[in-house]
Design a protein that fits this description.
mainly alpha, 89 residues, 88% helix, single chain, 2 helices
């Protein structure tokens, strides 16, 4: 296995991790900003108020995008194993 192949594999892995993590992170960020705006408007300065909505929103996103995430990981694993078999011969 050459360095280029290994670097391509690492790049594809990092890109997949970013792609799979992005929906949950974006939703958590948006919910956090909305809760912060609500806290600023109402002057409620409870630091634990943001955790429950973020967790619930993250769970909803994981439930909704879970099948897509699983399919992406299965496809990546199959592609990686097939390419490793090719490079060992």
């Amino acid at each position: 296995m050459t360095e280029k192949i290994l670097l391509d594999l690492m790049q594809h892995t990092l890109w997949l991790m970013l792609l799979l993590g992005a929906p949950v992170l974006v939703v958590s960020l948006v919910v956090g900003v909305l809760i912060s705006i609500l806290q600023a408007v109402t002057q409620i300065q409870e630091s634990t108020l943001t955790f429950v909505p973020k967790i619930l929103a993250s769970m909803v996103v994981i439930i909704l995008t879970g099948p897509w995430m699983l399919q992406m990981m299965v496809d990546y694993t199959q592609q990686t194993l097939n390419s490793l078999i090719q490079y060992t011969h």
